[in-house]
Amino acid sequence: GADLAYALRILRINRFDVNQGGSVSSITGEVPMDLSFFGKERVLRDRPLKLTVRVTDADFKLAALLSPYIAESGGKVSVMAGVSGTPRTPAMQGTVRLRDARVRLAGREEIVEKVELEGAFDQNQLTVNRMSGTQGTKGKITGSGTWQWSGLPREQMVPAVAGPAGQYKFLVKAVNFTVTDRETYLMQLTGDFTIANGKTEDGRQIPFITGTAVLAKGNLTLDLAARDREEIALPFYYDISVEVPGGLFYRTVDSEVELQGTLRLLNKGEGNLALGTMTVRKGRYYLFTREIRNLSGDFIFNSLDRTDPELAVDGETTVPKGNEQLVIKVSLTGRASRPVVHLWDPNNVLSEAELWKALTYGQFVGEYSGQDPSAPITSGVSDLVIQGYLFRNAERWLTQSGWIDTFNLRTGSRSGDKGTAGPLDVGVVGAGKYVTRDLYLNYSREFSGQGEKRVGAEYRVTRHLLLKGERTERQVVQGSKLPGEEYNLDLKVRLEY
Fold first, then answer.
1. Mapping DSSP to helix (H, G, I), strand (E, B) and coil, where does residue 18 land?
2. If residue 184 lies in a helix (H) or strand (E), which one and from where to where?
3. Tens of pLDDT along 406-443?
4. CB neighbour burial string for 440-452, b if at least 16 within 10 angstroms, e if fewer
5. Among 312, 318, 392, 440, which residue's CB has the most CB atoms within a 10 Å radius?
6. What percent of the chain has pLDDT over 70?
7. pTM of this prediction?
8. Exposure string (b/e) for 203-230, b if CB count within 10 Å is 16 or more?
9. From the CB of residue 1, how many other CB atoms can be counted at a distance below 10 Å?
């Protein structure tokens, strides 16, 4: 409801009420305006302003609609304030209170719940006396600070690319607060932080978070994302020093290593960066099928392009040699995305070339395979490593061609089936195609045309239920208990924990 009047370039608000879910908010007062037909400026920015604002338990969900920097919000907000001064330099006296609120910033995954805030307006400054919030069951955040939006020197009143204009500074303490981008890092931190107005390279204003923290646990991984993709720009910068006594794991397909040291987390508009030298506490790294143990050394995070540390790590692995184990020392250098591996024999008996043979070819044949060294070596087995490499690349090329979604090649020796004679021992060939997003069909058979043929289908009923069916056709062998045809139907349940 509204009761407005206009005269002498003054808009008088006798009553302006908004009813929202049982909560009534009202505004009364005078606003200097020029509503004439030839008026050049509708709001007279240098004329006196006088308003009284009463907001009682309004829905804070409006914050996500009014600000592009808030992706999600909820809760109740109350404001009691008197506004004076001019539209150009407004002054306020009053209080603000936020309770049981929920906030998530744009471009971020962190959600803060049960937010409580109490503040007071004094002329051109807001003082937050108390602020608190929770994250999950363990995370807590508290803080206080000030925001001055006018009355500053001209050089401090610069345009804002994000966050409020003016000058602000908030001191925040976080306990077991988890930060993540759901792609390259997840960290649970406890520390003290300062949120103040910073500047971008072009001189505009943006919130800047600095501080120190101690890590309780976390994960880092190699950023495999293409650099030419469009990244979501954060509505703030940050530069935080993190003390890591342990519990930070660097994980990739080939490694899982626990690190300790000091790490600098940085983002000034060029993406999320991690800088620093971390010492290996423990972990493992896989080279082919062998596990490298007893790791020691450093992970040096110095890449300004992405999270791709430089390695200076030593370890060891073993392969069977008769009734004993051959110990091979391993050193890893270069970038984690392209590691350089060197091998050496601690007894100075075998050369590096012989050690590479033991780790690759020798795992399947000869004295390092665990088999009888006197057994004859067949060409099918001797080519197993090379065939596996060729098959993996063939699978990758065929799936990238677009006309099928999955392609599978297996050697006869690896699949346990009778393969084809010749340099390439092809045992089983299979292919699959997603007919729809939820329906997947596949087919496989022995390359020789003898043995089993399989036709299967998978249908994803829901996110947590998968229905899988398969028909197997095989040649009936005299004396075998296996039927000529076999049908299987499975219901798979996915549980998240």
1. strand
2. none
3. 777 665 544 444 444 444 455 677 888 888 878 888 88
4. bebebbbbeeebe
5. 440
6. 82
7. 0.66
8. eebbbbbebebebbebbbbbbeeeeeee
9. 9
